[in-house]
Amino acid sequence: MNLEHNTYIYLIVAALTIYAIRALPLTLIQKEITNTFIKSFLYYVPYVTLAVMAFPAIVTATSSLVSGIVAFVVAVVVAWVDGNLFKVATASCVAVYLTELIV
Amino acid sequence: MNSENKKWYLMGLREGVPIGLGYFAVGFTLGIAAKNAGITAFQMGLMSFMLHASAGQFAAITVIAGQSGYFAMFLTQLVINIRYLLMSAALSQKISPDTSLGKRMLLSYFVTDEIFGVSASVKGELNPFYNFGAISIGSPAWLLGTVLGVLVGNILPPDLTTALSVALYGMFLAVVIPASRESRTVAAVVAVSMAASLIFSLVPILAGISGGTKIIILTVGIAAIAAVIRPVADEEVQ
Lengths: 103, 238
Hints:
Chain A has 103 residues and is an all-alpha fold.
């Protein structure tokens, strides 16, 4: 067995690294943070992260720019009107499918 | 499971459905890449269960295929996944301070972009059983998609894969858009974040920065500026 490049050891290294990153804050920060800045910072984190991950990625994820833009617009409109995760996800999928049938 | 936890678990299960669909579709693509790199279906399933991370697994496959060494694996995973540090920190303030260590450790195992995304949509205090419900659909779908990708290649019609791949992005928008409707500050933060993200993907020098690093730079920068300009009072956070 080649221990220098063993796939399973590679996986263990990757898993330990990613778990440490995911677990350290959740297990170490057990109290409610009272510092206003940190509290506010953590409050804004999800909105920035999710916005950055969604856009422009959603526009370039499909096979044409047109269907990507349609996916984005439909998702934003449905999210604004309703906000239900499942409806928004489904609506944008259906919009892409239909657009790509036409375009 | 008491009735309160059960209620949250069922809510999570429901939100897990679009996550599962998206994971299944994205998993296929990842499985095909893994197969080309010489990863077996068993190794793929194991990797998916151990990591639950699309970009992280793609990078892991690259490191394994290139036989780049264990230290390279550590560094790559650190850089690509460091955003989870921020998500985990944000979650630590969203759950009850009384949450047991065991629950915290289990919750940590499943901090993915999408699970974090749906947790962010929960108003007020988050019950970890919500996440456990969502991952009960998400994790098997992820394993199934990635393993099938290795075994049979892409049997899904391409247009269906494309359509499903936007499900995950749609979910992110389903979190940030309703929050933007309720708060002008959040709306401004979201608009600035999207604009900055667009600039990062268009400007040649910045476009070379990896996705994970871009998320970290923009999140730290924009959230910090927002926290200085518009600090939130206790009642707003709830």
